[in-house]
Amino acid sequence: MPATFVRIERPDRPPPLPRHVSWHARANVIALAWAMLAVCAAATVGPLGLPSWLPVHLLLLGTVTNAIVTWTEHFTVALLRLPATSDRYQAGRLAVLNTGVLVLVLGAASGLVPFAVVSAVAVLGVVAVHTLALARASRGALAGRFAHIGAWYTAAGASFVLGAALGTMMLLDSAGPQVQQRLLAAHVHLNLLGWVGLAVIGSLFTLWPTILRTRIVEGAGTVARRVLVPVLVGLGAGAAGLATGTRWVALAGIVLYAAGILVCLVPLVRTALRERPSGAAAWSVAASLVWLLAALAVDVHALAVHAPHEVHTVLQPLLPLFLVGFTGQVLLGSLTYLFPVVLGGGPRAVKAGTALLGRGWPVRLAALNLALPLTLLPGAWGTAAWVPVLASAATFVLLAAVAALRAWEVKAGPGLIGTGLGAALTALALVFALGAPVQEGSTVTPTGRTETVEVALGDMVIEPGTITVDPGDELVLEVTNEDAQPHDLRMENGTRTPVLAPGESATLEVGVVEGPLRGWCSVMGHRASGMEMTVLTTGDDVPLTEHGEHPEGTTADPLDLSGEFGEGWEPVDAALDPAPDTDEHDVEIRVGETEQEVAPGVRRPVWTFGGTAPGPVLRGKVGDVFDITLINDGTMGHSIDFHAGSLAPDEPMRTLAPGEELTYRFTADKAGAWLYHCSTAPMTHHLANGMYGAVIIDPPDLAEVDREYLLVQGELYPGEPGDAEQTEHIRAGRPQAWMFNGAAMGYEHAPLAARVDERVRVWVVAAGPVGGTSFHVVGARFDTVYKEGAHLLGPDDAGGAQTLDLATAQGGFVETTFPEAGHYPFVDHDLSHAEGGAHGHFEVEEP
Less Cβ around it within 10 Å: N or C end of the chain? Predict the structure, then answer.
């Protein structure tokens, strides 16, 4: 009888994994490894001194990008019935992607910019190739109810490519600070709303009904096809508006994007109404969509009230809520459903894997979503709130690791799990070691003592300006904003407070002090205006770079004033209308920020009263009452100070936050040419950028004349409004140009009219903010001079005058007649000012 060989299989051994299932399981393990690194980084940012961007990029570039690249390829192939991609291609793609992410993180952390740039290009290239492959495959697929999915994934990939390109530009750090902030805001929107948002929403049209184990509702495919274009247009406009500083374009774009997402959620809600969500996967995805809507609402509000270069600073404290609430939870929910499927092993194994990943899910889901908003609390409470959030995320990653190890018959004991955590922390320690700046001689031993110092923010100073502690002492700052506008405190070692509203306080744990540290307020223009402090250790004699010093140097090179103004430019009308025949003046003035042509061919940002710089002219008689309604439509705090009135400044001159308004009531009981201006600190910035105007209160005996004009002289400074360059030149009294009524050489191109023998009165107000004027009309003499409320010369006097000299914030008028036709220049007779733009002329014609 011949021998027979019998092979006995273990009855509980799962069947071999199909090739595509096994591949996706291993690819998702890579994503889970990045997730564990992100959790560890978030938990150790403070103790290890890791950069705050590290956990964000570990999550987005490591976990989310791996998951999107893997699953968008899988869904496209499966739903469009396309041939599967080869193992070699997928392995090569993920190898390049993950190597690029690793080198990018290490290069950025260690300051090795060339490595970071090259790796960023590599990551960008992988996603670009992946996106092109999906687009090509989708075009070649048969049209069907899932045909939309390729378009959504292509749009998501294109958003990543654009966002990554902006991120690479920021690594090169070739732009100014405001441009960098605008690019950063656009980069964040393209990556979060585009790469993540479009990929997630595109997938949920089919994944959500699958999770709920029901059919796709009728009309879902139509919504998916029709809404993509407006959503993509909105995202593109939002990013473009942020990058270019066009605020209303950015706002309109994000509003359009948000409206499109709301439409996309309608079929998902209809599906949930038909089949109630149950289990960890469904409720995690549902919670993530609530966070998405909340994030879009906050984003729209931020764009509505803040300038583009301020948007990222405002939203930065809220980004963790979006990252964890939306991105993290949708990933947890999706993998809870998908990961057991790709692990394979048959229905029983999938059911067991799903049950494993769902262990304790109600507690984990509640802990994450209830604790997440509490992370915004200052100090220890906010830090403590991260414990349940990170514990919830870490628990899922560990359960997923156990599921994978069980499926592959690897015993997942405590030792193996501990080894994995140790490896993650070791990797983070390596990143920290490479990324932390080397501090020569940093051999200070902590003393164990804590020095607590109270710090006050206000009036453009930080008090105390210098703090001295013993080397090795731990420094804690109790910071209070005693000003009427927001401030924060950022230290050179990366620690910082949130932006503090007036009256708010925060505790800033600076850490162990080893050597000199600088601190400053990061609100635009405040550091440049003097809001800096220094922390020294006992015995230090280390001079720090002086405030306002720029290594590359700055100059106030004069502008070329010989050109032409742009097409459509019109000067401020200098003709002064008579005082209205009323004793009560009700005036509404809206504050805003815009651009204005301030010299031939030169457009600059300006801050305005009433939309122009200078602001609207107010005119009245002695005893008139002015009711001024001031409305702040701007993006920062502003106020107003009328020199023509006399009253306590506490309330009517207080700083208004964006969107606020007040009524300023004063009685003009004294005649004169009065200045009004913004009185919010730093006042030099607000005046230098256009926030001034004139109030004319006629003297009781004012005679009628043939023509009246008003010239408000101001100064133009180089640089962006409020930046260090501009502040340096203001303090040095070095304008780049001088202006009458908001434009240098404006009345050379638009001369003022007069006729021979007409009596012409010219009111002049010197707005500064630094210098005054010596007003002179070439070829004419003044027979009347009125200065600061008094006549210095009358037409019946024997003498005459050649100039009206005014110090900063003074005003008056002169009168003259022109003896013959011709061109009569008027100038500030400080001739450097005249040659720098304080120059115009009268064009005098025959009667």
Answer: N
In this structure, the number of other CB atoms found within 10 A of the CB of residue 622 comes to 14
| pLDDT tens figures, 735-756 | 999 999 999 999 999 999 999 9
pLDDT band at 24 (very low <50, low <70, confident <90, very high): low
Secondary structure of residue 334 in the 3-state scheme: helix
Contact indicator for 793, 800 with CB cutoff of 8 Å:
yes
Residue in the block written with tokens 């103790």 = 47
Whether the model clears a pTM of 0.90, i.e. scores above it, the answer is no
Q: Are 584 and 627 in contact (CB under 8 A)?
A: yes
Give me the pLDDT at residue 335, please: 82
Angle between helix 414-435 and helix 87-110 axes, rounded to 10 deg: 50
CB 267 within 8 A of CB 217: yes
Strand 450-458 relative to strand 474-481, pairing: parallel
- In the three-class reduction of DSSP (H, G, I as helix; E, B as strand; rest coil), residue 6 is classed as coil
| Per-residue confidence band for 5, with pLDDT thresholds at 50, 70 and 90 | very low
Q: Which residues are CB-contacts of 549 (< 8 A; sequence separation ≥ 6)?
A: none
Closest C-alpha among 732, 677, 312 to residue 528: 732
Q: What share of the chain is helix, strand, coil (3-state, %, to 5)?
A: 45, 20, 35
Q: Name which of 291, 276, 373 is nearest 332 in CA terms.
A: 291
- Tell which wins on pLDDT, 653 or 331: 653
Integer Rg of the chain from CA: 34
Q: Residues 113-118: what's their mean pLDDT? A: 69
Which amino acid is present at 615?
A: G
Backbone angles phi, psi at 431, to 5 degrees: -60, -45
Residue 106: predicted pLDDT? 75
Amino acid at 620: G
Please state the rounded mean pLDDT for residues 725-729.
81
Which residue is associated with the tokens 């103004």?
Answer: 565
Find out whether 392 and 333 touch, Cβ atoms under 8 Å. Answer: no
Q: How many whole angstroms separate alpha carbon 434 and alpha carbon 49?
A: 12
Helix runs in 667-718, H state only:
683-688
Rounded Cα distance between 285 and 329, Å, is: 6
Which of the 8 DSSP states describes residue 9? -
Count of C-beta atoms within a 10 Å radius of residue 329? 27
3-state secondary structure (DSSP) of residue 827: strand
Question: How many H-runs (helices) and E-runs (strands) does the chain carry?
Answer: 22, 27
Q: What is the DSSP string of 547-582?
A: TT--TT----PPP-TTS-PPTT------B-PPPPS-
Enumerate residues 6+ apart whose C-beta is below 8 A from 604: 595, 596, 598, 716
Q: How many CB atoms lie within 10 A of CB 98?
A: 20
Most confident of 50-54, 569-573, 672-676: 672-676
pLDDT of res. 18: 44
Q: Is the pLDDT of residue 425 over 70?
A: no
How far apart CA 145 and CA 148 sit, in angstroms, is 7
Q: What is the pLDDT of residues 348-362, one digit of tens each?
A: 877 887 888 888 889
Residue 652 vs residues 183, 546, 630, 635, 670: alpha-carbon distances, Å: 38, 37, 10, 20, 19
Residue 352's pLDDT is 83
Strands (E), 405-473: 450-458, 461-463, 466-469
Task: For tokens 């473009």, name the residue.
Answer: 240
Structure tokens, 377: 């609390």
Angle between helices 347-357 and 379-407 (to 10 degrees): 160
Residue 289 burial (CB count, 10 A): 24
Nearest-angstrom CA–CA distance, 550 and 547: 9
> What percent of the chain has a predicted confidence (pLDDT) above 70?
82
Q: Under a CB-based contact definition with an 8 Å cutoff, are residues 829 and 774 in contact?
A: yes
Q: Look at residue 6 in the predicted model and tell me its pLDDT.
A: 40
Q: Name which of 512, 492, 510 is nearest 437 in CA terms.
A: 492
Reported as a pLDDT band with limits 50, 70 and 90, residue 441 is very low
